């Protein structure tokens, strides 16, 4: 059962983030989580974890890309 929940949560999180990107609705995942909570607390928790992990990774990747760009610019200015 745990494998099924994790698989469903991961796919739903992926689809929800795509919809959030397409619509600009940054809180859509909360609405989906509320819907899940009404019928499956286990799936809700797994889904919210999947979304949070993906959002955290996106944020960290933005910081990394910005930092790399800054370092490249600094190296070019020094050359």
UniProtKB/TrEMBL annotation:
This is Pyrroline-5-carboxylate reductase. It comes from Ruegeria alba.
